[in-house]
Every structure is written in C-alpha cells, then in structure tokens.
Amino acid sequence: MDELNQKLCQLMAEACTYPASSLERRQKLSEVHLLVMKSRKLWREYQPYYNDALQQMWEYCLQHPQEYDPTRGSVISWLNYNLKKQLRRLRDAQYRQKQRQITVTITEYWQTIDPVENLPASPDIQPIMEIWENTRTWVETDPKGILRNTLFRKRSDINAQVLLLRRLPPDTPWKNIAAEFQLTPAEAKDLPKFYNRKCLPLLRKFGRSQGYI
After folding, report:
1. Residue 102 lies in a domain
2. pLDDT, tens digit, for every residue of 188-210?
3. 107 in any annotated domain
4. pLDDT tens track for 98-140
5. Are 87 and 122 found together in one domain?
6. Within-domain flag for 194
7. b/e map 58-85, b = 16+ CB within 10 Å
8. What CA–CA distance (Å, rounded) separates 117 from 65?
9. Residue 151, strand partner residues
10. What is the pLDDT of residues 53-99, one digit of tens each?
C-alpha cells in the first residue's frame, strides 16, 4: 500500500469513529478531500457535466464513508468508481433528454404538415423514432426519383430532396439555404412557397402511404 493510500485509509477509518454530524468527522473527511484533489489521481473526462458529477460524487462519498471497504481497493479507486457511476447517470439523463427533444420535434413536424390528422396513438405499433428514420431514409434514397426531379426554377441543385433534407428536424433556416445556393431576393422569397406547394405534398403522400398521418 503506497503512502498516500495508507494515509487516506487511516483518515477514512478515523472519520467513521465519530458521529456523522461531528466536527471531528468533518475535519477528517476534509483532509481526505484535500489530499485526493492534490494528488490529481481522480478520473478525468472532458464532458460538460463532469464538474456536476464530481461534486455529486464528493457529496455522496463524504456522507457515506462507512461504505468504503479497504479490502476491495484503495480510497481513490472507490472514489473513482463512484465518480464514473455519477458520470454514467448524467450521460444517460442527457441522452434521454435529447431523445425526448427529438421526439417532440418530429411529432410537431408531422402535425404541422398535416394539422388535420394526428400521429398514430399507439407508440408500440409505430415508435416515433422508427417513423423518423424511415422518413429520412426515404428522402435520402428517393427510390423512384420523384424528389430529385421536382426542381425549383429548373435548377437541378435545388430539388425536393435537397430541400427536405435541409428542412427535416432540426431544420435549416431559409435564409441559410438562400445563402448556400446564392439566391436572389426574389428567389429567396419564392423558395418557401415552392417548398410548401411542391415538396410538402410529396412528404405528406409518403407519410400517408406508411400510415404515419
């Protein structure tokens, strides 16, 4: 056992001999915190939620020092285990939040292009993410070439496929699309009209053929 871990083990053992709310216990655990932070041996990840995970790890471990078992590893290994657990929890929470946002965006998108109809009520039959993936695959592959042949002002580089890919969630602003294709002010004004008149009906037709709307 190296000198640092020996000292940490001693402090942890001594902390556990005092009542949970005692000054002596807080002092011993403060020494643990100081020594560990100075050692720079804690697990590092360059994630935006790392500091939150670190703080939550310290709060938990310093409140439950009795859970440390010296027979299973060093104090720093125990801290790192709990730190990684907090990181996983925050990472999973962030992933679930993103999935919820995508689901809401896609649902709103389909309701917007056909406000009279609604998405199927049962998520077990047609999960929203499956709908989204199938729709995007259809636009990208354009199996019958209908999208590629639906042109804006006879420009082959601005067709229904190109526009749908840019307007599917998360959508690209119209001003960015106009700048990308170097449209004149008049063309930029007409492009959303073309999209609503020519592109969305094709997307709506596909959605109906699949039972999405």
Report:
1. no
2. 999 999 999 999 899 888 888 88
3. no
4. 766 666 666 666 665 544 444 444 444 346 677 778 888 999 9
5. no
6. yes
7. beebbeebeebebeeebbbebbbebbee
8. 57
9. 159
10. 999 999 999 999 999 999 889 999 999 999 999 999 888 887 777 76
- The 3-class secondary structure across the chain, one letter per residue, is CCHHHHHHHHHHHHHHCCCCCCHHHHHHHHHHHHHHHHHCCCCCCCCCCHHHHHHHHHHHHHHCHHHCCHHHCCHHHHHHHHHHHHHHHHHHHHHHHHHHHHHHHHHHHHHHHCCCCCCCCCCCCCCHHHHHHHHHHHHHHCCCCCCCCCEECCEEEEEHHHHHHHHCCCCCCHHHHHHHCCCCHHHHHHHHHHHHHHHHHHHHHHHHHCCCC
The domain in which residue 203 lies consists of 114-209
Which two three-digit tokens encode residue 192? Answer: 């959303």
Clarify whether residues 81 and 160 are in a common domain. Answer: no
Query: Domain end: 93, 125, 148, which one?
Result: 93
Q: Which two tokens stand for residue 8?
A: 């940490």
Q: In terms of domains, do 77 and 47 share one?
A: yes
Domain count of the chain? 2
85 & 125 share domain: no
Rounded Cα distance, 101 and 105, in Å? 6
Which tokens belong to 90? Answer: 């925050």
> Same structural domain for residues 119 and 89?
no
Structure pTM?
0.49
